[in-house]
Design brief:
Layout lengths: L7 E2 L5 E2 L4 E8 L9 E9 L1 E16 L2 E6 L2 E10 L8 E2 L14 E4 L2 E6 L4 E14 L5 E4 L1
Antiparallel strand pairs: 1-2, 3-11, 4-10, 4-12, 5-8, 5-9, 5-11, 6-7, 6-10
Length: 147
């Protein structure tokens, strides 16, 4: 009886299982730099990928800013705009109501995009979020890297 390999493999021939491949990026907020109003690049996507993205807070966010995750032209397309002070340590952020336990976010498909975090009104003066992008390549040369 032949054994069939049912796993899709990455470019290094490592089986992709469960959540797929995982890229991460940690941001520690400071009002003058990382917490200032505007967009920050999180992940660069080459080719076509299926992905889920979420943030895990390790230090409470402070300040008056709002925060969201998406792409240019749809800045809240992946994680809805949330008041920064609503994101506390040990909470998972997938929508506008961070919580200690969450269901995995829905699967999105993107092609040749940069995932961005946008801070809207006000600044975020302190706090830390680690973003996780769980992805699977759809096209043969697809990749996701933190930027």
């Amino acid at each position: 009886m032949a054994i069939t390999d049912v796993y899709q493999r990455d470019a290094n021939q490592v089986p992709i299982t469960g959540l797929g491949l995982i890229a991460s990026k940690t941001i520690t907020y400071d009002a003058a730099t990382t917490g200032a109003i505007g967009a920050t690049n999180l992940f660069a996507i080459t080719g076509t990928v299926a992905l889920r993205i979420f943030g895990v807070c390790s230090v409470n966010l402070t300040g008056s800013g709002t925060i969201e995750v998406g792409i240019a032209g749809n800045t809240a397309g992946l994680i809805a705009q949330t008041t920064g002070t609503d994101i506390d340590a040990d909470e998972i952020w997938i929508d506008n109501a961070p919580a200690k336990i969450e269901t995995l976010p829905s699967l999105s498909i993107l092609t040749n995009q940069t995932i961005i975090q946008t801070i809207g009104t006000g600044t975020i003066t302190a706090g830390t979020i680690t973003y996780y992008c769980c992805w699977t390549p759809v096209s043969s040369s697809a990749s996701v890297v933190s930027v």
